[in-house]
Design a protein that fits this description.
The protein has helices spanning about 15-25, 35-40, 55-70, 95-120, 140-145, 150-155, 155-170, 195-205, 215-225, and strands spanning about 5-10, 30-35, 50, 75-80, 130-135, 175-180, 235-240. By secondary structure, it is of the alpha/beta class. Helix 3 runs parallel beside helix 4 and helix 4 runs parallel beside helix 6.
């Protein structure tokens, strides 16, 4: 039976790859993201699209109304929206602390708040039993991210997921987190990275290769399957062993 799948950040990278995997099953997919044109061009057969800033409560209320009208029930909710806060518009820089406050606020807004607002808005529409909530974290949540802001924003999803799993478990709904490592063919770095950096990131893996959006998408798809029905409150790392190091 076809399921209703809602994917934030579904226009590019991991979100788009996940959307294509679910659509290939015949599931009905709703793509959410800030850029309507990108969502339309994602190439996901039969997908619905809704352009929205998920960090804005008013925008998320609009999503909830759209879901109620078009889907009714949400079987799988995938949170792929987010990314490198350093690629967002710069804030005021009159004082170093202003810059710090801006960096941390932006990272938490696009990586944590977006996921929390969307979850809370759709929580009562999750299918029961059998509903799935899936968050995208990062290897940075374990190893840091240079400034700390991005890593902390992703790490904040972990306790939220654990609390949510306990809350939704009695309804037969599971909640899990997937934490990728270096994944190519996404917009995270804003383009190709320096070859030396790429080689260093690959060298940290045990598999000797970069991750792909498909690696993460198939993991999300499995966690959303009936076969993963007794797996909840877990953080699944998809990084070729890079988090363990050599």
């Amino acid at each position: 039976m076809a399921r209703n799948i809602v994917i934030s950040g579904g226009g590019t990278g991991i979100g788009r790859a996940a959307a294509r995997v679910f659509a290939a099953d015949g599931d009905r997919v709703l793509l959410l993201g800030r850029r309507g044109g990108v969502l339309e061009e994602a190439g996901v057969p039969g997908a619905l699209t809704y352009a929205v800033d998920l960090g804005d409560p008013a925008g998320v209320r609009g999503v909830a109304r759209f879901v109620a009208e078009e889907l009714g029930t949400v079987d799988v909710l995938v949170h792929s929206a987010g990314g490198n806060g350093g690629r967002e518009p710069e804030g005021p820089a009159e004082d170093p602390l202003d810059a710090v406050a801006h960096t941390w606020s932006v990272n938490f807004r696009i990586n944590t708040l977006t996921a929390v607002l969307l979850t809370e808005a759709l929580k009562e529409r999750l299918a029961e039993p059998g509903g799935r909530v899936l968050f995208l974290s990062s290897i940075a949540a374990y190893r840091g991210s240079g400034t700390g802001a991005y890593a902390a924003a992703k790490a904040a999803l972990h306790p939220y997921a654990h609390d949510l799993a306990r809350q939704l478990g009695p309804r037969g709904i599971t909640v899990n987190v997937v934490a990728p490592g270096y994944v190519e063919d996404t917009e995270f770095f804003g383009g190709a990275i320096e070859e030396a950096r790429r080689e260093r990131l690959i060298a940290e893996t045990s598999t000797g290769r970069a991750g792909t959006p498909g690696d993460v998408a198939t993991t999300l798809h499995w966690l959303a399957s009936p076969g993963a029905g007794h797996i909840t409150s877990q953080i699944i790392q998809v990084n070729g062993g890079a988090e363990r190091g050599h």
